[in-house]
Amino acid sequence: MASILPKPNKTRLAQLAELSAKIFNNVYNPKGERTGNKILRQKLIGPTIVEWYPKRIITLRKITDMFPSMKLVDQEEKLRLEEIAKRKKRGKGAPKKGKGKNASLAKKRK
C-alpha cells in the first residue's frame, strides 16, 4: 500500500518559493507585480554608443584658436572662403536673411 502524503498548504508553498528564490538567486515576487528585472538584466548600451563616435582629435582649427599668436593658416578654409568670395562676386552667393526662395514664397501666400 502506498502512503498518501498530505497536501501542503498555501503558506508552506509560499515559504518554499521564497527559499527557492534565495537559493537560486531569483527575485521572490509572490504577487506577480512588475519589477523591471527584465530591463535591468539586459546588457548596458552606453559603452557601445560611446565606441560608435570617433575619439576627439585635435584639429588645426583648435590649435589656431588656442594659440592665435602663431598665426597658422588652414589652407582648406582659405580656399573655401576664396570660392565663396568668387561666387558672391558673380551673384551666385547665398541670399541675405529673409531674401531667399522660402521667404519669397511665404510673402506670396499672405
UniProtKB/TrEMBL annotation:
Organism: Funneliformis mosseae (Endomycorrhizal fungus)
Region annotation (Disordered) ranges: 84-110
Location within or outside the cell: Mitochondrion
Family of the protein in this entry: Belongs to the mitochondrion-specific ribosomal protein mS33 family.
Chief localization: mitochondrion
Official protein name in the record: Small ribosomal subunit protein mS33
InterPro entries found in the cross-reference section: Ribosomal_mS33
Feature: compositional bias, Basic residues: 86-110
Organism domain of life: Eukaryota
Residues annotated as signal peptide: none
Keyword annotations from UniProtKB, A to Z: Mitochondrion, Ribonucleoprotein, Ribosomal protein
Entry GO terms, CC: mitochondrion; ribonucleoprotein complex; ribosome
